[in-house]
Write a structure and sequence with these properties.
Number of helices: 14
Mean pLDDT: 94
Low-confidence stretches: none
Helix content: 25-40%
CATH architecture of the largest domain: Alpha-Beta Barrel
Strand order of the largest sheet: 1-2-3-12-13-14-15-16
Strand content: 15-25%
Number of strands: 20
CATH class of the largest domain: Alpha Beta
CATH superfamily of the largest domain: Phosphoenolpyruvate-binding domains
Number of domains: 3
Structural class: alpha/beta
Distance between the termini: 18 Å
Oligomer: single chain
Shape: globular
Length: 418
């Protein structure tokens, strides 16, 4: 494994077995399925594709919760400022919110609507008996299946839909490793998802996508396993100018609690069409490394992009070139159990005394490795763990460069330098 972990959303560009193999060889560590477009058959398809190439790449299903998405109408529709568009409540209409057909009931004149990453913006002008009308205030192309955001409006308090629960049950029953839950706003939302998982050992990633989630990040971080800085949602819900400070706040909370943090949205957006990222995108990944990100995530780059394997490769080239500037630091502020803190201190002291050596950690304590990832060690870290399921959880933990599964690994944590 590489130090910077890479989550790739799987779609048409990565369905080809040779492309999936190349992505894994280049550094893909977590394969993600976007539940907005997937059913249980798609989960099975992706699992088979991944497992044909790797036992240690983790599988993550993304459930959409209260996210609203338009139906997949036939073709993208050219639009212009001033156009009036009708959004219905069923397939009787050309355009309608596919997963929340009753959205029209919540619309009032003046409500802002952001489509996708905010490239299309509208304003509600009228609520009708089965639909609502909205005026285009920005944008040139309305694309099918895109997310609809309603800044300041909460349409639904439940973090899971019926479809989400079907996907979660299937994922849990078929050996998936992680779930990323959309629009997590409170610790209670996390507990709802955890209850839905039942006895499953799947870990939960909170996608923080709006102001409420950012405001409650401390309580969320205390109960969740990992967190995603969902910059797409943050940008449309709060305004793009507020994304940097929101990202910093989420990163700080992840550092404090010693939990993995993932940076997402438009990492290498230009690679949808081009074989090389822009300088600004490269700098974005470099800043992720310097900010203690455990992982970065691709969406369109690896679902419909032309160069998915190259996109993954560039993350590793950037990581290798800039990581030496990260200085090891053992923070006194870690809000973790005392036994974990003691083990992290011991491992840190051994590692910084021999920065050119590999730190070998034999353990069944995932929290130890997660917190150690926040210390910015120069060393490669090899983890010896008791199960393959444990090994897959490390696919989201930064800094761990090698994993060995050994069923006889001691339940007592041990460290060595080699």
């Amino acid at each position: 494994m590489n130090k910077l972990k890479v989550v790739c959303t799987i779609g048409p560009s990565t369905w080809v077995p040779e492309t999936m193999k190349a992505c894994i060889e280049n550094g893909l560590t977590v394969a993600r399925v976007n539940g907005a477009f997937a059913d249980t058959a798609e989960l099975d398809r992706v699992k088979a594709l991944v497992r044909a190439n790797s036992d240690t790449v983790a599988l993550m299903v993304d459930v959409k919760g209260p996210e609203v998405r338009m139906n997949k109408f036939a073709e993208a529709k050219p639009i212009k400022v001033g156009d009036i568009i009708e959004f219905g409540n069923s397939d009787k209409y050309d355009i309608f919110p596919a997963n929340y057909p009753d959205t029209y009931k919540h619309m009032v004149a003046g409500q802002k609507i952001m489509i996708g990453d905010g490239d299309v913006r509208l304003e509600v002008t009228e609520q009708k008996s089965e639909s609502f009308m909205a005026k285009v205030t920005a944008g040139m192309l309305l694309k099918p299946g895109k997310a609809m955001n309603f800044p300041g409006l909460r349409l639904n308090d439940n973090p899971l839909t019926d479809k989400d629960i079907v996907l979660l049950n299937h994922a849990a029953a078929t050996g998936w490793d992680m779930v990323s839950a959309s629009f997590i706003r409170t610790a209670k939302d996390v507990e709802v998802v955890r209850k839905a998982l039942g006895d499953s050992k799947m870990t939960i990633m909170a996608k923080v996508e709006d102001e409420e989630g950012v405001d409650n990040i401390e309580e969320i971080m205390a109960v969740v396993d990992t967190v995603m800085v969902a910059r797409g949602g943050l940008g449309v819900e709060m305004g793009v100018e507020r994304v940097p400070l929101s990202q910093k706040k989420i990163f700080s909370a992840a550092y404090k609690y010693g939990k993995p943090v993932l940076m997402a949205t438009q990492m290498f957006e230009s690679m949808l069409e081009n074989p090389m990222p822009t300088r600004a995108e490269v700098n974005d990944v470099a800043n992720a490394v310097w900010s203690n990100a455990d992982a970065v995530m691709f969406s369109g780059e690896t679902t419909i992009g032309k160069y998915p394997a190259l996109a993954v490769e560039y993350t590793q080239l950037v990581d290798k070139d800039v990581r030496h500037l990260v200085e090891p630091k053992l923070s006194p502020m870690f809000n973790v159990a005392e036994d974990v803190k003691a083990d992290v201190t011991k491992a840190f002291e051994m590692a910084v005394a021999a920065p050119d050596k590999t730190l070998v950690v034999t353990t069944n304590n995932l929290r130890l490795l997660e917190v150690l990832a926040k210390c910015g060690l120069k060393n490669n870290v090899k983890a010896i763990v008791p199960t393959i399921e444990f090994a897959r959880q490390l696919a989201m933990v930064g800094g761990v460069t090698e994993v060995e599964v050994n069923e006889t690994a001691s339940t007592t944590t041990q460290f060595s330098i080699v």
